[in-house]
Specification:
Blueprint lengths: L6 E2 L7 H11 L8 H14 L3 E5 L2 H11 L7 E4 L6 H8 L3 E4 L11 H9 L8 E3 L10 H11 L2 E5 L7 E3 L5 E3 L8 E5 L12 E5 L2 H11 L3 E2 L15 E2 L10 H12 L1 H19 L14 E2 L5 E4 L3 H10 L2 E2 L11 H4 L9 H9 E4 L7 H15 L2
Parallel strand pairs: 1-15, 3-4, 3-5, 5-6, 6-9
Antiparallel strand pairs: 2-10, 7-8, 7-13, 9-10, 11-12, 14-16
Helix pairs in contact: 1-8, 2-8, 3-4, 3-7, 9-13, 10-13
The protein binds pyridoxal-5'-phosphate.
Length: 388
């Protein structure tokens, strides 16, 4: 393989069939607000096993509308993991709420449930309104355990599953529980950014089993406007609509939905390839000193949006890979350390486990079209740097 070729950490895969699906929609009557949206929502809800799905402009919009639908108000406190992209926390701030960070577990890198219970137990019930866990890297939270805690303290859950369509955990009865199936989180959010499992350019989805939340989301996605005769306060004729609350234009287009439907057909194949790539890395690094690979418990099916290793000299390895055309990435600088969140009172040292992970983590190339040859090249360059 030519060593001048570049290998990113993540990348979309677009087939001729995907292109045809978009072209057909371009020739149809609807570029937006048409049948592709409804079909994409139906198929996505089926894919994750939820009753309802609402397609939106991106994952951030999905989180924002979710926080609105659950009624986050100025001053409401919501618990969020710091090991995530800023949007997981920002959705609370958009509604005027306060973000309270809870550190992560050092093996799963997910919200630490013991820490969470300590935080919750220290205040009277009602002090916190909700929790936003993130299925970091595609490793799903154990929804059943989190639900039990949430129930005890009267909290809602918005699961940020932007990394995890197709992931699942096995519950205490031995049953598979797909991420986003609506049984454990009130609302689950997904992103269709090109590095994610399903790419629509920009795009997002919210799944739920609550009809009430579903209807709220539909309304707030389109300016808070309804034409539904059953909901109108007055009716002046066929043209008539009412804006009943302050909403947004957070719609996905039909072009994007057509691409999403086409991509969804290959989602399971993509997951399978991600598993293979992860196994190849696991095997290759098994006896390599100085690398920590992802720890996967048997009750969790990892969707491997990312394959995150830890090394001591992360900057050195990052630069070595970059010099060799391999663009690894760092996920994430903990959100509480971003200047905006520091200015709200968060400090270095507040979240020691997340901060330690940030010092060492590196996301290696992980996407379904990564070839074995490319992966061998990446592995070789890592071993070369670590002199194994
Ligand atoms: C964990 C997480 N949450 C939310 C988002 C926001 O999604 P989007 O980029 O589609 O707005 C992302 C995307 O990068 C993400 O990784």
């Amino acid at each position: 393989m030519s060593e001048r070729r570049t290998i990113p950490y993540g990348k979309q895969s677009i087939t001729e069939e995907d292109i045809q699906a978009v072209v057909e929609t371009l020739r149809s009557d609807f570029l937006t607000q048409g049948p592709q949206i409804v079909e994409f929502e139906k198929q996505f809800a089926h894919y994750v096993g939820a009753d309802y799905a609402v397609a939106v402009a991106n994952g951030t919009a999905a989180l924002h509308l979710s926080a609105m639908a659950l009624g986050v108000q100025p001053g409401d406190r919501v618990i969020v993991t710091p090991m995530t992209f800023a949007a997981s926390a920002n959705c609370v701030r958009y509604c005027g709420g306060d973000v309270v960070f809870c550190d992560i577990d050092k093996e799963s890198y997910l919200l630490d449930l013991e820490q969470l219970e300590l935080i919750l137990a220290a205040k009277p019930k009602g002090f916190y309104k909700g929790i936003i866990p993130v299925d970091y890297a595609g490793y799903p939270i154990h929804g059943e355990r989190l639900r039990k805690i949430a129930k005890q303290y009267g909290l809602w859950i918005i699961e940020d599953a932007c990394h995890a369509p197709g992931a699942y955990f096995v519950d205490s009865k031995g049953e598979k529980q797909l991420t986003g199936n609506g049984k454990f989180a009130e609302l689950t959010c997904f992103s269709f950014h090109p590095v994610k499992h399903i790419a629509t350019g920009e795009g997002g989805m919210i799944t739920t089993n609550s009809k009430e939340l579903y209807e709220k989301l539909l309304l707030s996605r389109t300016h808070g406007i309804t034409k539904d005769p059953a909901r109108l306060q007055e009716n002046h004729g066929g043209w008539y609509y009412e804006m009943q609350e302050l909403g947004y234009n957070y719609r996905l287009t039909d072009l994007q939905a057509a691409l999403g439907i086409s991509q969804l057909k290959r989602a399971d194949r993509g997951l399978k390839r991600r598993q293979e790539i992860a196994q190849n890395y696991d095997k290759a690094f098994q006896n390599v000193k100085g690398i920590t690979t992802p720890q996967v418990q048997s009750a969790h099916f990892h969707a491997y949006h990312l394959y995150v290793i830890q090394v001591d000299d992360r900057l050195g390895l990052y630069n070595h890979l970059k010099e060799n055309g391999i663009f690894a990435q760092v996920h994430y600088e903990p959100v509480h350390l971003q200047p905006y969140y520091r200015q709200l009172g968060n400090r270095s040292g507040d979240m020691p486990v997340a901060e330690n992970l940030y010092q060492h983590c590196l996301s290696l190339p992980m996407f379904p079209t990564l070839t074995d040859e490319e992966q061998d090249y990446v592995i070789g360059k890592i071993k070369e740097y670590l002199k194994n």
